[in-house]
Amino acid sequence: MRRRSRLAEALFRAALFVLPFAIAFVYVVTLLAVLTVDEWRIVFGGMATYLVAPVGTEVVIPAVFIALLAVHAAWPVFVIAATSVVLVDVLTALFFLWNWDLIERVPRVGRILRRVEDKCRQVIEKRRWGGGATLMALALYVALPFQMTGGLFGSVLGRVMGLNKIKVFLAVTAGSIAGAVPLGIVAYLVGPPVLAALESPSAQTFGLAAGILITVAFVGAVVLLYRRGRRNAD
After folding, report:
1. Helical spans, DSSP H, in 144-200
2. Would you state the torsion angle of the CA atoms of residues 105, 109, 115, 120, taken in this order, to the nearest 10 degrees?
3. C-alpha span between 131 and 153 (Å, rounded)
C-alpha cells in the first residue's frame, strides 16, 4: 500500500510539473491548424520572446501585431496573438503555483518562505479590506506594461504575500488580460510608430527602471507585512 501511495504521489507530482509544458505544446501545435506558416512563426516567436527574453508586453505585443500587419493577417489572428501572450503568463503562474511546495522544500529557503507567508497572511486576514486590496494590487502589478511585472514575478510575490493559489492565479490572469488588451488595440490601430517609440533606448530604460522600482515596492510591502506579523505575534 505504501509503495502504491508513493508511486501515485510521484506520478501526481510529475504530472503537475509537466502539465503546463504539455498544455503549451498542444496549444502551439494546434495553432498550426488555424494559422498560416508566417502567422504561426510570428505568434510563436512572440510567445518564446516573452517567456525567455528580458522584455515585457510593452514590446512583445506591438512587435507581434506589427509583424502580423505586414503579412496582412485577418483580425482574428490578432486576437489569437494577444491570447497567446496572455497564455504564457497563465501557464507560468500554473507552473509555479502547482510546484510551489517544491520550492518550500529547499533547505533554509523553504523555511524562510513559509515563515514570511504565514506572517503576511496573518496581517492581511486581520483587515477586512486586506485580502481584496492585496489581490487588486497584484493584478495591477501584472497588468503594468513594464519589465519584471509579468506572471512569473506576480506568482512568486502573490504566494510570498500569503495569497492562496486560486487568488494568485486569478490575479495573474486578470492582470495579464488587462495589460495585453489595451496594448494590442493601440498597436493594431497605430502600428509602427508605437513599436519605434517603445523600442527606443529611453523607453527601454524607463520600462526597466519602472519595473525594478515597482517590484522593489512590492518586496518592501512583503517586508512590512512580515514585520507587522512578527510584532503582533510578540
Report:
1. 151-160, 165-190, 192-198
2. -110
3. 19
229/120 Cα distance (integer angstroms): 6
Cell numbers given for 6: 508513493
**Would the CA dihedral through 67, 56, 32, 174 be positive or negative?**
negative
Residues 6+ apart with CB under 8 A from 20: 91, 92, 94, 95, 98
d(CA 234, CA 226): 12
Exposed / middle / buried, residue 73 (Cβ in 10 Å: 0-12, 13-18, 19+): buried
Q: Tens digit of pLDDT for each residue in 36-47?
A: 999 999 999 999
Which residues, 6 or more positions from 214, have their beta carbon under 8 angstroms from its beta carbon?
141, 144, 146, 148, 149
- Residue 97 in grid coordinates: 503555483
> Is there a contact between 60 and 180 (Cβ–Cβ < 8 Å)?
no
Hunting for cell 503594468 — which residue is that?
144
pTM summary value = 0.75
In three-state secondary structure terms, 27 is: helix
Q: What percent of the chain lies above the pLDDT cut of 90?
A: 20
Q: Are 172 and 93 in contact (CB under 8 A)?
A: yes
Q: How far apart are CA 50 and CA 129, in angstroms?
A: 34
What residue type is 90 in one-letter code?
A: V
pLDDT, mean over the chain: 78
Sign of the Cα torsion 219, 224, 228, 234 reads positive
Q: Is residue 86 predicted with pLDDT exceeding 60?
A: yes
Q: How many angstroms separate the CA atoms of 74 and 77, rounded? A: 6
